[in-house]
Specification:
The complex is a heterodimer of chains A (172) and B (197).
Chain A lengths: L48 E5 L5 H35 L7 E2 L2 H37 L5 E14 L2 E9 L1
Helix pairs in contact in A: 1-2
Chain B lengths: L1 H11 L10 E2 L11 E2 L6 E2 L25 E3 L9 E7 L5 E7 L7 E10 L5 E7 L5 E2 L14 E10 L4 E8 L12 E10 L2
Parallel strand pairs in B: 4-6
Antiparallel strand pairs in B: 2-3, 5-12, 6-11, 7-10, 7-12, 8-9, 8-11
Classes of the chains: A alpha+beta (172), B mainly beta (197).
């Protein structure tokens, strides 16, 4: 909002034609107005500022998401451990050429270990994957909505003796 | 399809991949799952490739079931060469006996016997009979430098004997670890020599 006081401009003087001239005299030039104080020559235009304020997740939401992700990573890590253990046990007995070695109860145990770890790895991968998927879905579903805020600036010019005070205000 | 291939790649390495013929048969014809013991060469093969246990007639002579009727190992000297006898002890065979004489002119003499056989079939036990007497167990610790080949077991026997004595070494069934009778036979190699103790 802008406001400026303007001093009153004196009215044009009345000019009367000289007697006997017979013609209408040309109007005299309008003298510039005499102003003592500052004059606002251009109006201050206010413009709205729109700001998007992203919503913030609550602490409990963050904790829940972090816990679910951590659980997924942890269980997936266990799955990786069992996966590698299964591969190790499997590689110890796997062969495509004659080994010269007699099949033994220890080899049977390696096969059983490979199968056991393989099953555990599959289960852990499934559970870990479910946790990670749940965390992603929850991250999307619980995303807080952003808010819009409008800022309306106000400028003012206050003439003072020998100058002016320029000020600004914002309301929102 | 691609996901299926990826899952297969990840888990394929987690299952043992054992080609037929990779392993010798273990105790009591133990083999990897999906394979069986081949009776000819004691290797683990596909069940469709299995051949039954077989033994040439020459390695299973009849009538050697008693010490006095054992196959003769002759020409042993006080410090003899190693006499090696290959044979089979079938399920319906009680024992295989080998008899020999100790020379009478030795300063001191001992019997050294070594028996090796595949672990895939019923283990064998050594016995000794001196001067056609009763048979008794004959097994002593093998020398620390003696190791059986892979897939085989070894039995050793050492005994100081008198000059001019007569002895018989026999091989009998152990009576256990015979696949409930399904593998109650075996091939063997008996090494015998006389030496100075």
């Amino acid at each position: 909002m802008a406001r400026a006081d303007q001093p009153a401009v004196p009215a044009d003087p009345t000019i009367e034609p000289a007697p006997g001239s017979g013609s209408e005299p040309a109007p005299p030039p309008t003298p510039p107005p005499e102003v003592d104080g500052p004059v606002l020559r251009a109006p201050i235009r206010t413009k709205q500022i729109v700001i998007d304020i992203p919503g913030e997740r609550s602490r409990s939401n963050k904790l829940a998401l972090a816990a679910t992700t951590a659980a997924g990573v942890l269980v997936g890590g266990l799955g990786l451990y069992w996966h590698l253990d299964s591969r190790t046990a499997s590689n110890e007995v796997s062969s495509d050429t004659f080994t010269g070695h007699a099949w033994s109860a220890a080899d049977e145990a390696q096969v059983a270990r490979a199968d056991r770890s393989r099953t555990r790895a599959a289960v852990a991968y499934s559970i870990g994957g479910a946790f990670i998927t749940a965390a992603i879905v929850a991250l999307i579903v619980t995303e807080p909505k952003s808010e819009q805020s409008v800022i309306r600036p106000h400028a003012s010019v206050e003439p003072t003796t020998g100058g002016a005070v320029v000020g600004g205000m914002w309301s929102f | 399809m691609r996901a299926h291939w990826l899952v297969g790649l990840v888990f394929a390495a987690c299952s043992p991949d054992i080609a037929a013929g990779s392993y010798l048969c273990g105790p009591e014809q133990l083999c990897p799952e999906g394979q069986a013991c081949n009776g000819v060469d004691n290797t683990c093969v596909l069940p469709t490739q299995v051949e039954p246990f077989a033994c040439p007639d020459s390695q299973d002579p009849a009538g050697d079931d008693a010490p006095s009727a054992g196959q003769l190992i002759d020409n042993l000297t006080c410090v003899s060469r190693t006499s090696e006898s290959k044979g089979c002890l079938l399920q319906n065979d009680v024992a295989d006996w080998y008899q020999f004489d100790v020379p009478g002119n030795c300063t001191a003499v001992q019997i050294e016997a070594r028996l090796t056989f595949p672990i895939a079939y019923e283990p064998l036990v050594l016995q000794i009979s001196s001067m056609d007497g009763p048979a008794g167990p004959a097994e002593t610790a093998c020398p620390s430098t003696t190791f059986p080949d892979e897939g085989e077991a070894i039995r050793c026997f050492k005994l100081v004997v008198e000059n001019g004595s007569h002895h018989a070494i026999g091989l009998v069934h152990q009576g256990s670890e015979d696949c409930h009778g399904a593998c109650a036979n075996n091939r063997y190699t008996l090494s015998l020599q006389l030496s100075t103790p």
